[in-house]
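A reminder from the course coordinator: this example appears on the midterm review sheet, so study it carefully.

Given structure:
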């Protein structure tokens, strides 16, 4: 007998062979993750907001977690988050509402395509549903 034959162990005939199969589907993305996966502008703006919080808290950026990102149409020049004593001009401005979490705290940002503005939830005014298109898996390309 050759050396190779000695290494093989016979398999009992009554022992069924196990077959492990896994679904070939991608993991289901959360709505915010789906948006940043298909929208590089949203991904970039989320990254800017994450870096800001990470630098402020002296944390690695990966410790600042994305909770939610929504495409919105703001209704004023202050991105619906006016500072005290700031006058906002009514206008439609496309952008995103980003919600991040670091530690036990949440951080809200409003953006257009040029600015990422941290928003105090006490000053935040969300646009109404008719001003904001809803992004669902059925409506995304």
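Designed residues:
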């Amino acid at each position: 007998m050759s050396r190779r034959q000695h290494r093989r162990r016979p398999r009992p005939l009554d022992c069924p062979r196990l077959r492990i199969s896994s679904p070939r589907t991608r993991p289901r993305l959360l709505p915010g993750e789906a948006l940043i996966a298909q929208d590089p502008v949203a991904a970039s703006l989320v990254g800017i907001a994450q870096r800001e919080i990470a630098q402020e808290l002296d944390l690695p950026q990966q410790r600042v977690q994305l909770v939610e990102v929504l495409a919105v149409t703001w209704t004023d020049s202050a991105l619906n988050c006016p500072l005290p004593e700031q006058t906002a001009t009514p206008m439609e401005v496309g952008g995103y509402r980003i919600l991040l979490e670091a530690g036990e705290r949440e951080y809200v940002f409003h953006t257009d395509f040029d600015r990422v503005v941290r928003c105090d939830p006490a000053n935040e005014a969300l646009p109404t549903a008719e001003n904001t298109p809803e992004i669902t898996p059925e409506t995304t390309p």
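Residues 40-57 form the longest helix (18 residues). The chain has one domain: 31-131.
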